[in-house]
Predict the 3D structure of the following.
Amino acid sequence: TATYKNLVLKDVVEPDGVKAGKTYDAGTANCESTALALVVEYLLDMGLDADEIETTLETYIETDKFADLVDTVCCIIEDCDNITNYCCLVECDIPEFTCETTSLNINIPTPACDVTCTTISKPITVKFVGKDDVVINDFSDTRLDWTIPSGISFTEISGEVCLTGAVGTYNIKVTYVDPLPDLCGSISKTIPVTFTNCSCPPPTSLNINIPTPACDATCTTISKPITVKFVGKDDVVINNFSDSRLDWTIPSGISFDKSNGKVCLTGAVGTYNITATYTDDCGIISKTIPVAFSECECGPCGEDGENDCFTVKSWTSYDSGNDKTTFWFKICDKSGSGCSGLSHWVYGTSTQAEFCIDIDANIGYDGSTGYYGIKWENNLPGAGECKIFTVVLEGCRVGGTYKAILKYGTTIAVFNVCGPTCD
């Protein structure tokens, strides 16, 4: 994609091309040569060599897109002393070149064991931004370039890939280069193709799971079983982390106990990569699994509740400097029809065992509501009023849920509100 925001004056491309050793000198007057040099730079960035660029230019300079580019360059040169002056660009009719390759979709079926050939599936599809998909059904299409490793052969006419060497995995690389007139770039994809021997197939995947530990947790345990998959052979299922076919690479900062699969933090919090390698007589396969240990953040909590008579809002704030958490409660009397005034309210839980607040406050069992907690009887909101109440606790305590129990008349209303963690 050509961009014109950072244009610079380019050397002129001489009529006989862009061969090595040539000297090019444009000046500012020759709009066409400056535009042509911009195109040359773009083609060089795409990886084209001198001969390919020369062939491309012969066609491109006859297109409307090149004419639009020349007009834009002339406009900028005419209006600006310095072609990099972006203010001048807004006065010029800059053409939009927004197409770009985004993906190359190709499928090569895995051959069954002892099968020595497979055929690439049709079609090959290239996707873009700013342009419709390109669908290719011809493997010899000039827009495609194939890189085939030794040990296998590839027939472009049929798309057949055949084994010529030892069984194993071979990586086929295909590159698509978008041609004129769009020049939307190039994209590559590498596809592994595995040929296997039925009597001794190599492993194709190693499935292992290490659960991410909760924040502030210093250990996690690798899940059982570990499963190794093959082509043409039953899975190998491993439940012993000390199995001789497994080799573990454990970085410093964590420990690994093979007897139980426990992984524990011994260094700083962070992400550590554990590599497990499975080896048997027919092959080897490895997998690296990141394990992230983290500290808990004292995040906010927000709980809202409402009925016909009252609204209850709660939230938290954490002062890291003093290591204190404040729980905030805003209670509003809506003065709804048939509502009595608030006689008192309790912040707490249904049993004393669940209550984990230790502060100098009126804490106990409220027989009128059946809840245990902190009781407020004074400075309550009147009709149409709102009042705020707070509880301050040591440390980062966000994460639990308590109850706000409001008693008015003969009615008891219970709302979920922010509560502390108790560990």
